Every structure is written in structure tokens, then in C-alpha cells.
Inverse folding.
């Protein structure tokens, strides 16, 4: 869990806004095409099922795992969460297992009252533990965070008393949007490869 304050202002949309899914898919697709460069996509969902507010990441991971997709690797589910105790080892394992992975860090965060329920997408890593004064390694080449409650005081208590309904709604929206964006990005990559192969095989077809 992190606080929502970052140097650069991330893209932000309330989970219950009209066409929130469309906005998220469009932004995520753009960032994936811009940043991933064909590298293997690894999703790291940070959090724990022992705290309602901090369970956003593992719930997203569990939802994504149901797709059983070959287009990304996944770390952090309700069954096998990635949290403060194993985050560093998980990141080491990812870099040993995957060659130049493109990592998407996902976590819950605390913010202003007016921003509760908003989903943020930004460049660079998420910084787990910042909201509760923990020193943990940053995660991701890009990040997705969900503002689940208000920050600034008694963070552990606030996380424990976050509504599960809100967390579930946000998790479902993030998981579905991210999966759709990855599929969009994969299809674009596949089409470009097919076109390149076709050009090499039959270059005359592409001459004016």
C-alpha cells in the first residue's frame, strides 16, 4: 500500500465514472505500446488478504489468473500474495526467470477523501509501503493504483476498515481493463509481425 502523492500527475479516473473501462483500456493500451517494446509482460499485484484495503492487489491477481493467459506472467494472488515479507525475493525471482521483463506494478493506496474510488495509471514504479512508513523496493516500469481510502492518519486502522465492496468493484474494473489492453497490445504486435513476414515473402504485393 502506498500514498497517492507522486512527482508526476498520473492519469486518474473514478471507478464509477461513465465509460471508465474504455478510458482505462485506451490509456493502458497506449502505454503498453509505448513502453513495453515487445518485452515479456510481468504483472506484480502487491498486497495482503489480511487487510481489506490492502487486498486490492491480490484480488486483481486472482481475477487475472482465471484468464490463464499466455500474454503475461503473474505474481500476487489471494492464494500466494506478494507483500512486505516476500517482495524483494519475488523481484529477484522475476529477474532470474524473465529476460528483460516489462513489469506492471499494482497496489492499493490512500489519498484524499475526494479521490477515494479513483484508479491511477502512471509511468515508473509503484512504491509499496510508503503509506505506512515501510522501506520496500519499488515495483514496475509502470504502475496502477487504486485509492481505497483516506490517508494521513492511522493508516493501518483505515486499511482494516475499508469497504470490501469498493475494493471488489475497483479490482474487477482494473483486472478487466488491463487484460483487454494487453490483448490489444498483443494483437497489434502480432499483426505487425505478420505484415513484416508477408513483406519478406511477397514484397511485390506491397509495391505501389
Amino acid at each position: 500500500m502506498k500514498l497517492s502523492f507522486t512527482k508526476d500527475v498520473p492519469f486518474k479516473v473514478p471507478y464509477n465514472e461513465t465509460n471508465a473501462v474504455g478510458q482505462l483500456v485506451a490509456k493502458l493500451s497506449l502505454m503498453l505500446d509505448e513502453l513495453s517494446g515487445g518485452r515479456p509482460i510481468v504483472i506484480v499485484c502487491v498486497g495482503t488478504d489480511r487487510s481489506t484495503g490492502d487486498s486490492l492487489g491480490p484480488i486483481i491477481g486472482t481475477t487475472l489468473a482465471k484468464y490463464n493467459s499466455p500474454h503475461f506472467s503473474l505474481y500476487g494472488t489471494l492464494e500466494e500474495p506478494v507483500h512486505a515479507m516476500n517482495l524483494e525475493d519475488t523481484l529477484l525471482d522475476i529477474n532470474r526467470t524473465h529476460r528483460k521483463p516489462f513489469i506492471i506494478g499494482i497496489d492499493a493506496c490512500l489519498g484524499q477523501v475526494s479521490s477515494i474510488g479513483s484508479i491511477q495509471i502512471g509511468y515508473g514504479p509503484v512504491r509499496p509501503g510508503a503509506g505506512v512508513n515501510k522501506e520496500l523496493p519499488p515495483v514496475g516500469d509502470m504502475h496502477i493504483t487504486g485509492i481505497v481510502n483516506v490517508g494521513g492518519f492511522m493508516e493501518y486502522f483505515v486499511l482494516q476498515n475499508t469497504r470490501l465492496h469498493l475494493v471488489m468493484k475497483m479490482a474487477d474494473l482494473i483486472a478487466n481493463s488491463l487484460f483487454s489492453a494487453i490483448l490489444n497490445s498483443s494483437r497489434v504486435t502480432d499483426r505487425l509481425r505478420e505484415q513484416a513476414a508477408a513483406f519478406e515473402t511477397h514484397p511485390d504485393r506491397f509495391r505501389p
Notes: DSSP finds five helices and seven strands in the chain. Confidence is low (pLDDT under 50) at residues 2-7.
